[in-house]
Amino acid sequence: MSGEEEENAAELKIGDEFLKAKCLMNCEVSLILEHKYEQLQQRAEDPTNQVSQVFEKSLQYVKRFSRYKNPDALCVLGNLCPETVEEATSIVPSLKTKGRVHEDEAIEKMLNDLSLIKKFE
């Protein structure tokens, strides 16, 4: 981006470093930020490594709006693209729990979300 042109995310004027960036899901960002947060907390004695307010708010945001709590199951489902809840639970048995009515709805929602992502690729 030229020095004269100012970055503006609302108008999709972003820096060159973002042009080849990969899109991440909130659950993936949450894992990355949680790991970084733990590293920063271990070095908390050093005042130069304090967690910024922006970092904390970003972490809170992705935790709050992350629909998926099991990234391993999500990756398997994303890679194998099952089309039904039954197919998904046979591929990832850990998705099965006792009172499955609500879980089936959550799995169905996840499969629908993944199929939308696939359509836009």
UniProtKB/TrEMBL annotation:
It is found in: Nucleus. Keywords: Nucleus. The keyword Transmembrane does not apply. GO terms for cellular component: RNA polymerase II, core complex. SMART domains: RPOL4c (SM00657). GO terms for molecular function: nucleotide binding; translation initiation factor binding. GO terms for biological process: transcription initiation at RNA polymerase II promoter. Residues 16-121 form the RNA polymerase Rpb4/RPC9 core domain. Pfam families: RNA_pol_Rpb4. The keyword Nucleus applies. PANTHER family: DNA-DIRECTED RNA POLYMERASE II. Belongs to the eukaryotic RPB4 RNA polymerase subunit family. This is RNA polymerase Rpb4/RPC9 core domain-containing protein. It comes from Cucumis sativus (Cucumber).
